Amino acid sequence: MKNCPECGAASPVYDTRDVRYAYKGRETTIPAVTGYHCMGCNGVTMEEEAVNRYSELVGQFQREVNGKEVDPA
């Protein structure tokens, strides 16, 4: 990949890295995300398998955050 599809920066690096994710003012780290990591915008371009794993972990975090906002009563 020659350029980042999000910002156009040159030469994203193919690597496995932890990625910060924020939702409703809370942050977490999604571990070991494999893909093309952009040094310009911190975006990541992933293949399907990595996208599926990333989406599952993001969904778990969002459910956790949402669960803390709901009054069980």
Written account of the structure:
- With 73 residues, this protein is an alpha+beta fold.
- The chain has one domain (13-68): Ubiquitin-like (UB roll).
- It is 30% helix and 34% strand.
- The protein is built from 1 helix and 3 strands.
- It has one helix spanning 48-69; strands at residues 13-23, 26-37, 44-45.
- A 3-stranded antiparallel beta sheet has the order 1-2-3.
- The termini are far apart.
- The relative contact order is 0.21.
Helices and strands, with pairings:
Elements: E1 13-23, E2 26-37, E3 44-45, H1 48-69
Antiparallel strand pairs: 1-2, 2-3
Number of DSSP-assigned strands: 3
The portion of residues forming beta strands comes to 25-35%
The residue fraction in helices comes out at: 25-40%
What do the pLDDT scores average to?
Answer: 94
Strand order of the largest sheet: 1-2-3
Most strands sheet? 3 strands, antiparallel
- SS element count, helices: 1
Shape: elongated
If classified by CATH, what would the architecture be?
Roll
Supply the number of structural domains. 1
Order of helices and strands: EEEH
Helix/strand-derived class?
A: alpha+beta
Tell me the span between the first and last alpha carbons: 51 Å
Q: What name does CATH use for the topology?
A: Ubiquitin-like (UB roll)
Taking pLDDT < 50 over at least 5 consecutive residues as the criterion, the unreliable ranges are: none
Text of the CATH class: Alpha Beta
Q: Using only CA atoms, what is the Rg?
A: 15 Å
